[in-house]
Amino acid sequence: MRPFALSTRRNAEGVALLTVLGILALLTVMGLATVSYVAHQTDEARLRLDTLRAEHIAQGGLQAAIALIEERLAAEEGRHGEAWEDAVSIPVYVVDGGGEPAAASHVWGEAVFTVEDELGRVNLNFAPPDLLERLGFSPEDAAAVAEYVRPGGNGARWLSSVDGVVTAAGLDPGAAGALETGWFTVYSAPPGAPPGAYLNVNTLPTDVLAAVLDVSAEQADEAAARRPFQNARALAYAAGKRPEAFLLAPPEGEPEGTAEALAFRSRTYRVAVEGRLVEEGDGVEEDEGGQRTRLVRRVSAVVHFPVDGPPEILRAWPGGAP
C-alpha cells in the first residue's frame, strides 16, 4: 500500500505545482495587460493634452495675427493688400511643484501664419456674368450664378461656399474646373452686405486682372509690374486704356472715375495659421535646429477690419481652410 500512497501524493504535488504555475502565468499576463493598458491610457491622455495645447497655440496665433494686421493698417503698412507671413512664440503652461501654473521650459508653442488679401479673389455673390465668362464659366453657368443670388428682400439668397455653387446654382459639373483655380471666394463680405469695392486690383491674379481690364494676358503682366496702383488714373496708365473701356467700367457720366467694384487697398484678409507644439531636451529626437515639433494643428479665418470698430471674423475653419 505504501508505494501506491507515495505515488498518489506525488501526483497531487504535481497537480498543485502545475496549478500554481498556471496561476502565476495568468497573474503575469494580467499584470502585463494592466501595465500595457495604463501605458496606453497615459499616452492617450498625453495626446489629448497635446492636441488641446496645439489647438490653443493655433487660436493664439490667429489672435496675434489679427493684432499685427491692425497695427500694420494703422501704420499704413501693406495697405495695398500685399501678402506676408510671420511667426510668434506662445508659452505652454504646466503646474509646478507648488500647484501653480508656470511656463514650461522644455515645451512651447510656435504659431506660423500667412496673410493674404481676400479682395484678391472674385466674390461669386457680386461678380457680373460677363466677368465670370472671362474666367472660365460658360454663358449659361455665369447667368445661373447671377440669377441664384438675390441681394435683398424676403427672398434674399446668397452663396455660402465656393464648392457649393455648382449644386446651389444648378451648374454643369464641368464648371468645377473653373472653381479650382483659386480665383474665387464668397467670404470677402458678410451675407447680405452691399458689394462695394470687392476687387483689389493690386492683389488680383494677372489672369483675373486681364479680365477686369479687358486686356490681353501680356498687357496684364505689364500692368501688374507697375503695382501698386494708387488710383484709377495710375491703373489706366498701366493698362494703356481709359477706365471707361475696362470690362468693369466706371459709372455713366464719370469716364475717368473708378468702377464701384474696384479697390486699391484692402481691409479684409484671409489668415492661415499653423500651431506647432515644440519640444526639446535630453532623449528627444531632434531636428537640425535642436528641437522637435510634437504636434501641429491649423486654423484659418477671413477677417474684416472696419475703419471704425473691432475686427470681425467673417468665416473660420478650425482645421484650416479647404
Can you describe what's shown?
The chain has helices spanning 2-74, 129-134, 139-148, 165-168, 176-179, 206-213, 217-224, 232-239; strands spanning 84-95, 101-117, 122-123, 184-185, 199-200, 262-263, 268-279, 292-304, 312-317. The protein is α/β, with parallel strands linked by helices. Helix 6 (206-213) crosses helix 7 (217-224). It is elongated. The model has no long low-confidence stretch (mean pLDDT 84).
Short characterization:
The chain has about 325 residues and is of the alpha/beta class.
What structural keywords apply?
alpha/beta, 21% strand
Major β-sheet annotation: 5 strands, antiparallel
Q: Residue-averaged pLDDT, rounded?
A: 84
Give the N-to-C terminal Cα separation: 89 Å
- Estimate the strand proportion: 15-25%
Give the beta-strand count: 9
Name the shape in a single word.
elongated
Question: Roughly how many Å is the radius of gyration?
Answer: 32 Å
The portion of residues assigned to helices is: 25-40%
List the helices and strands and how they pair.
Layout lengths: L1 H73 L9 E12 L5 E17 L4 E2 L5 H6 L4 H10 L16 H4 L7 H4 L4 E2 L13 E2 L5 H8 L3 H8 L7 H8 L22 E2 L4 E12 L12 E13 L7 E6 L5
Parallel strand pairs: 3-4, 5-6
Antiparallel strand pairs: 1-2, 2-7, 7-8, 8-9
Helix pairs in contact: 6-7
